[in-house]
Amino acid sequence: MTNQEYHNRPEISNSDLSLIKKSPFYFKNKHKFKQNTDAFTFGSALHTLVLEPEMFDKEYMVHDFNKRKKEDKEKYQEILNNDIKIVNTKEYDILKKMSDKILNDDICKQFLKNGKAEESYFSKLEDVDVKCRPDYFNKKNKTIIDLKTTTDASLNGFMLSASKFNYHIQASFYIDLMNSLDYDIQNFLFIAIEKTEPFSVGLHQYDSVSLDRGREQYKQLLDIYKWCKKNNNFYEYKNLDLQNNKISHINTMTLPAYKFYEN
Description:
Blueprint lengths: L2 H6 L5 H9 L1 H5 L9 H14 L4 H4 E3 L7 H12 L3 E3 L1 H15 L2 H6 L3 E3 L3 E5 L2 E5 L3 E3 L4 E8 L4 H10 L2 H13 L7 E8 L6 E4 L3 H24 L7 E3 L4 E3 L15
Parallel strand pairs: 1-2, 7-8
Antiparallel strand pairs: 3-6, 4-5, 6-7, 8-9, 10-11
Helix pairs in contact: 4-7, 10-11
């Protein structure tokens, strides 16, 4: 199954949960959002070079376009319309260095073998049809591998990034989905690599307490999705009280803790 075919399916994914967490309205209108940003293309290109290098030339073009020139701009758009992503030569040089760093790392190599990259899985959690597409599934070690680019791959640095993007929800969601299919997942491992020289790599995993919190949160988000679908109300920035089946239309603000200690 191609990545596009996977994304076109209706089951709820971790990306959908992220949108629901922002607001159900964002999820309902996700078709209006463009993902072909430079950052998205860079990240997906790295995934391909590391996990499916044989696919890179089929899915990407390395070329320097001057989009201020009409001819180049038109050619650039024509290529994008043919579902080919574009990276420039400077980006490609960086991507090659990053992918080589991961593929030549002795520990990373151990996890990125005896498995499959970019396979799709479908199941049901909390009576909701769900899906996931792990970057890599190491069947021998029963480990899901997720490749992340970051500005700081150290433990403390990556923890901040992971908290911001709710990676604990993703980890718990993937683990539970695949375990519902009897894969007996034992671990969810992040391979984090910095986007600047010397492209340092860090390997990180969550403790059980964090995974339990992620599990609690993804279940709550699925409950919100079910409520929205049942009531045909994909609300914006409002507060849903599931227990009392009530929406608060006005949000109450409070100051962050540090503001109470300012002079």
